[in-house]
Amino acid sequence: MKDHHLKAWLRLVETGSIRGAARSLHLSQAAITKAVKELEEDLDAPLIVRSSRGVTLTECGHQLTLRARMAQAQLTLARQDIRQLQGAIPRAWRWRSRRWHSSVSCRRCCGRSGAACLWPTSQLMKD
């Protein structure tokens, strides 16, 4: 189960149709159908019942919706936390080469080993 599967699933639930989900995500209907099919295979359970009027969620589909919303909320919080942490690090240093040295500690922000900190090695001190 991947993030894009959950996004497609939640949009399908919001719109009530594969076509609506595809339009709002700017994907093909086949891509939405494939994501739902992969979810059903991964969970080994039917999630929707298709009809000419759209889709209806099964009991398993309702349960997945609850969990998918919680998972998406947690991913959103994680992304916000990461962005906040990155905001504390000067932009010029953020994407420097990631050659980590396990024998150095950060003296600028966190005291973590070099492998856990994004500060450049010039800002690190030996243990």
Walk me through the structure.
The chain is mostly helical and 127 residues long. It folds into two domains: 3-87, Orthogonal Bundle (Arc Repressor Mutant, subunit A); 91-126, no CATH class. Mean pLDDT is 77; it is low at 92-105 and 119-127. It has five helices and four strands, in the order αααββααββ. It has a two-stranded antiparallel sheet. It has helices at 3-15, 18-25, 29-43, 59-87, 91-94, and strands at 48-51, 54-57, 104-106, 124-126.
How many domains make up the coordinates?
Answer: 2
Fraction of helical residues: 40-55%
Could you give the order of the helices and strands?
Answer: HHHEEHHEE
What share of the residues does DSSP label as strand, in percent? 5-15%
Low-confidence stretches: 92-105, 119-127
Number of helices in the DSSP assignment:
5
End-to-end Cα distance, whole Å, is 41 Å
With strands numbered from the N-terminus, the spatial order across the biggest sheet is 1-2
What is the overall pLDDT average?
Answer: 77
Largest sheet: 2 strands, antiparallel
